[in-house]
Amino acid sequence: IEGLYRYFVVHPDHLQLELEKMEMAPWDAENNSLKRSVCDVIASMTDRYALEIYSKLFLPNPLV
After folding, report:
1. What total of structural domains would you count in the chain?
2. Cβ(55)–Cβ(62) below 8 Å
3. Which ranges of 1-64 does DSSP label H, i.e. alpha helix?
4. What pTM did the predictor assign?
5. Is 40 a domain residue?
6. Which residues touch 9 (CB under 8 Å, ≥6 apart)?
7. Which portions of this protein are annotated as coiled-coil regions (predicted)?
């Protein structure tokens, strides 16, 4: 969870894509804190989906 949090704070463009996939309201820099929006996205993820995203971002792809 912490890894996802740090990733989305550093990459708000990817946060925006995730918000769109989850059909959540887009992040509005003027009215919402980035950190709060990241927390909302992660809190809305199922465990399985969070693990899937984490694996895609941080774990190497198998060669086979």
Report:
1. 1
2. no
3. 2-10, 12-21, 34-44, 47-58
4. 0.79
5. yes
6. 34, 35, 38
7. none
